[in-house]
Amino acid sequence: xxxxxxxxxxxxxxxxxxxxxxxxxxxxxxxxxxxxxxxxxxxxxxxxxxxxxxxxxxxxxxxxxxxxxxxx
Length: 72
Known about the structure:
By secondary structure, the protein is an all-alpha fold. The chain has a domain at 24-63. It has three helices and no strands. It has helices at 2-20, 28-34, 52-60. The longest helix is centred in the N-terminal third of the chain and has 19 residues, at 2-20. It is rod-shaped, with a radius of gyration of 20 Å. The chain starts with a helix and ends in a 12-residue tail after the last helix.
């Protein structure tokens, strides 16, 4: 009975953590390869939404040749 006292909350905690984690598609390998932060391709560091550079990278698999639009 004492085992259930600890096992049930542990199982609930583990299940909650597994359900609340998200799959990350951008990885540290991309930042190491391109030597740029996440925000170079994403709208924000925690966003999956890509900016123009990210869309270019998705299409060409490299940022070589990408020209950022000039800021006004």
